[in-house]
Amino acid sequence: MKPDIRGLDDIILFVDGFYKKVQQDELIGPIFNNAITDWPIHLEKMYKFWNAALFGVPRFKGNPLAKHAPLPIEARHFDRWLILFDQTIDAHFEGEMAVDAKKRAKLMAAMFLNRLNNMRGGPDKVIV
User: Fold this and answer.
1) Which residues, 6+ apart, have CB-to-CB distance to 48 below 8 Å?
2) Is the pLDDT of residue 69 over 90?
3) CB-count exposure of residue 5 (10 Å: 0-12, 13-18, 19+)
4) pTM for the full predicted model
């Protein structure tokens, strides 16, 4: 039986493992590698983000949607992101917090995709 996500050390484990997969992925790797110029700084932000999301530790500051808005990402990129995220969590953890992390990732992906699509408009939308 695998342990559940219990704190910052576990968050560091899954964030590092997840972003290693992201960097090497043929679909989303180039997007992330072009957008992120300092991986250690990005990883530190992600540790704080997930610590806030999962355990309510109020150290994260930032606007993730604004960082993602200019990127050429669409539904297939979010789908791959979720696959890699779930694989990473499942490789190391099981339990209530592991399930919660995957659920939160799915909710964030859906919200980001919806908001990005609304911001970008489309053939059926007029942006004035």
Assistant:
1) 57, 59, 60, 61
2) no
3) buried
4) 0.90
